[in-house]
Design a protein that fits this description.
Elements: H1 6-15, E1 40-41, E2 47-52, E3 62-71, E4 80-83, E5 103-108, E6 112-118, E7 131-137, E8 146-155, E9 161-165, E10 168-172, E11 175-179, E12 183-186, E13 193-197, E14 201-203, E15 208-215, E16 229-233, E17 236-241, E18 248-254, E19 260-262, E20 264-268, E21 274-276, E22 280-283, E23 288-294, H2 310-317, E24 323-324, E25 337-340, E26 350-353, E27 357-360, E28 377-383, E29 386-387, H3 389-397, E30 402-407, E31 421-427, H4 432-438, E32 441-444, E33 450-455, E34 463-464, E35 470-477, E36 482-489, E37 492-497, E38 501-502, E39 507-513, E40 528-536, E41 540-543, E42 554-556, E43 564-571, E44 575-583, E45 591-595, E46 598-599, E47 613-614, E48 617-621, H5 623-628, E49 631-637, E50 640-648, E51 651-652, E52 656-663, E53 672-679, E54 684-687, E55 690-692
Parallel strand pairs: 1-11, 14-22, 23-24, 27-28, 28-30, 34-55
Antiparallel strand pairs: 2-3, 3-8, 4-7, 4-10, 5-8, 6-7, 9-12, 10-11, 13-15, 15-18, 16-17, 16-20, 19-22, 20-21, 23-31, 25-26, 26-27, 28-29, 31-32, 32-54, 33-35, 35-52, 36-37, 36-53, 38-51, 39-44, 39-50, 40-43, 40-45, 41-44, 42-43, 45-48, 46-47, 49-50, 53-54, 53-55
């Protein structure tokens, strides 16, 4: 969500009244599912739809669309049509203000009322955006009649789609039923940046190939060809690449002669397009290979929710990923995966890969009694921009030997696509199945950092004999500054390292966190937005954060005042950071930080805790204050403790760091350990646990 969308939400909140939210609620009967309500696809064709859309639609544009709904049978007065949003659509449709974006109105021969209501007071709708536009027929409509749903100034997302839909539901037989709708294509923007993907670990003097993908500003693969490029190896010109008709290139037979950390830079001949590879770790004795994977990719490529087709999703991700799986879609002969949805009362959600590897999901927490302990067990601790580290700890605390995986995909409608993925550490002579069987994995939220660690010489995911001395050794290499390395035993931090050297800066780190672990056997808490500002009484300030496109994470000089920055971000189980630099030397300059009151998402409806209001926060401080100590504000949000940390970045953070820990105190058989690495802007890396003592159940 971008800053300009904030006024739309404010208008909706201000205008909604109780009278606007009483549209035959009692007549719609919900059926429970894992997300609260079962939405049925109509068993018969009761309406037909078609779209009036422009011929060429590109990302981030605004346009007017008319969706025609033709009724194939008579419907009585009081029939409701819910104007829904595509699964990954980040903005809010509304019927309240025609001057604002995403306005919905109706063209019809009969009277149709359009009202914007809060989803939670209309339970038959099921999960989705916090607000929904409801169209109510105030008189009977005959077979063959049509209504036109007009979307004015409809904001196109920053993500390109081949099957974008404007979903609809209709009330029928006291239930809402999804309507099959036409889809349209949203094309990417012009070329702005490059993705360069290389093997993470290679041997010295070993030939390898790198992949190049030309993308628009938001990271979508472009349509069309590429210009010529120059390839630089560690900053030294290596070769020139000719123009192509495809946005994808394979750069063959590259080599690094010397051990160490290396990278590849590629730039267009004119220099307007640039990109750098992930870090390449070169060694004389290569024992490991890293395969980047995601076994939980969502296509949503159907005619009721819209999204990507299976083929388009594979094309988007074959450059950054070595292994990928789309549950329910056989994209290759080697990886078959299925997604099993269950309501909480029936055991929760999981993925089964190759009929063997069990992946527990956190959106509807999996009941451990559904697991087959003779098969490998994984917990998905990051899904989209949601974090479920507690899920992995829950299973490990129950005695399961569990490993961690991550995915860019989320089940939560409207939640942003993330950059999460899993790294499989594959030893010489192994394939990915062997590493997955052992659980030799780590999980990342951004990029392709390298984490190599052992506990008593055991890799992540392994079990070792009991020992009273636990030695943890390793190294981490990333494209960002490494802020903290934490050693976690049995779910609790027992030691940590803060790398870097002292540095005198005026850079402020703002960190906002919201836990989502269920308070009982329930669905996780919903995500929440953070909308606010930081301003200085005397100095100019500037945002120096990395830009996160399409990620509900943005900071800008919204008012044009250089002393103030407005921001919006979203958290669900983890934290998000901003970096702000104060361009002045007055250490006593008064700085004000504020968060506006709001409300949690209403995407799911936990049984024991409803979505709740979030309080406003105001904090006044100075650079002088922060040099003494950071500021932490913890505040109650109906059973949860959300947190804001404001601190000074007083260290020059390294992007590579070697570490050692020794744990000798309060140890016992059955302990498990894992590492958690945090980057300067909240980037996360988790190793899978290593288990001390005990035994595994044999297949």
């Amino acid at each position: 969500m971008q800053l300009k969308s904030l006024n739309i939400v404010a208008i909706i909140l201000a205008v909604l009244t109780t009278s606007q939210s009483t549209l035959l609620c009692a007549e719609i009967i919900p059926e429970e599912t894992e997300m609260g309500v079962l939405l049925q696809v109509s068993p018969q064709v009761v309406v037909k739809t078609r779209l009036d859309v422009p011929d060429n639609i590109s990302v981030s544009s605004q346009l007017d669309v008319v969706q025609w709904v033709e009724f194939t049978r008579a419907f009585p007065s009081g029939t409701l049509i819910a104007v829904e949003q595509s699964s990954l659509y980040p903005w809010q449709l509304q019927s309240l203000d025609p001057s604002q974006a995403n306005h919905v109105s109706v063209k019809a021969d009969i009277e149709v009322k359009a009202k914007t209501i809060r989803r939670d007071i209309f339970p038959g709708l099921g999960p989705g955006s916090p607000f929904v536009v409801i169209l109510e027929l105030t008189s009977e409509i005959s077979s063959g009649q049509s209504i036109g749903i007009r979307y004015s100034n409809l904001q196109m997302p920053e993500t390109s789609y081949d099957e974008f839909a404007l979903p609809l539901q209709i009330s029928l037989d006291k239930h809402f039923h999804a309507i099959e709708v036409d889809t349209f294509t949203i094309a990417p923007g012009p070329a702005k940046t490059l993705m360069v993907s290389a093997p993470s670990i290679i041997g010295s003097s070993e030939l390898f190939d790198a992949k190049l993908l030309v993308m628009d500003e938001a990271g979508n693969p472009i349509n069309g060809g590429t210009p010529s490029f120059e390839v630089l190896i560690d900053g030294v010109f290596s070769r020139r690449l000719s123009k192509t008709t495809s946005p994808r290139l394979v750069i063959k037979d590259l080599v690094f002669e010397k051990p160490g950390l290396h990278k590849i830079d590629i730039r267009s001949s004119g220099g307007s397009l640039r990109g750098s590879s992930n870090i390449v770790y070169v060694t004389d004795n290569r024992e490991l290979n890293i395969l980047w994977s995601d076994f939980h990719l969502h296509k949503n490529g159907h005619t009721t929710k819209g999204g990507f087709s299976s083929g388009a999703l594979k094309e988007r991700l074959k450059t950054p990923l070595d292994l990928l799986s789309i549950p329910g879609s056989l994209h290759s002969s080697s990886i078959v995966s299925s997604e099993f949805y269950r309501p909480l009362s029936q055991g929760g959600n999981m993925i089964l890969v190759n009929n063997e590897y069990q992946i527990a999901l956190g959106d509807v927490p999996l009941d451990h009694r559904r697991l087959d302990i003779k098969k490998p067990i994984m917990a998905e601790i990051i899904a989209g921009s949601s974090q479920y580290e507690w899920l992995g700890k829950r299973f490990a605390d129950l005695g399961y030997k569990i490993s961690f995986v991550g995915s860019q995909s989320s089940h939560l409608p409207g939640s942003p696509i993330g950059n999460g993925k899993s790294a499989l550490l594959v030893r010489a002579g192994e394939d990915w199945r062997t590493a997955f069987d052992i659980g030799r994995t780590y999980v990342v939220s951004e990029g392709k950092p390298i984490l190599l660690m052992t506990i008593n010489d055991a890799d992540p995911g392994m079990r070792v004999p009991f020992s009273a001395r636990r030695e943890i050794k390793g190294e981490v290499h990333a494209s960002y500054g490494i802020h903290t390395v934490e050693l976690i035993r049995n779910g609790v931090v027992v030691d940590s390292r803060k790398p870097g050297i002292s540095a005198d800066t005026n850079v402020i780190q703002i960190k906002m966190s919201s836990p989502n672990q269920p308070l009982a056997w329930d669905l996780p808490r919903n995500g929440r937005e953070w909308i606010g500002y930081i301003k200085s009484s005397k100095s100019s300030i500037r945002d120096i954060s990395s830009k996160q496109y399409g990620d509900m994470h943005n900071m800008a000089s919204y008012s044009g005042d250089s002393s103030r920055l407005d921001f919006i971000t979203w958290t669900h189980g983890g934290s998000r950071n901003f970096l702000v630099e104060v361009l002045g030397d007055d250490q006593k300059d008064s700085l004000e930080f504020a968060i506006m009151a709001g409300f949690e998402d209403i995407i799911t409806l936990p049984k024991y805790r409803d979505p709740a209001a979030t309080p406003s926060i105001r904090q006044v401080f100075s650079l002088e204050t922060l040099r003494s100590n950071k500021i932490t504000r913890t505040f109650e949000t109906y059973g949860y403790k959300d947190e804001i940390d404001i601190s000074l970045v007083d260290r020059q953070l390294p992007s590579s760091y070697k570490f050692e820990f020794v744990d000798l105190t309060d140890i016992k058989a059955g302990d498990y350990y894992y590492l958690r690495v945090t980057g300067e802007e909240g980037e996360m890396i988790w190793s899978s646990p290593v288990y001390i003592g005990g035994f595994d159940v044999k297949k």
